[in-house]
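Support request, please re-run this one:
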Amino acid sequence: MNRKVALSFVFLWLAFGSVQFVEGQILGKVWMALLAIPLIRFARKSPLLIQSGGSSQ
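Re-run finished. Output below.
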């Protein structure tokens, strides 16, 4: 997690010249990760979302 925090600092500094919004940046990453975990698990278990390995001609 330390690497992601460091990258947030670097991104904000390069993009905006300030790290004023680092708390929001980190909070946004946490929220998106928490939302993505159940979606990824569902997608892996769903037979409708599994693509075939072969090509169709």
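The chain has one domain: 2-46. The longest helix spans residues 22-45.
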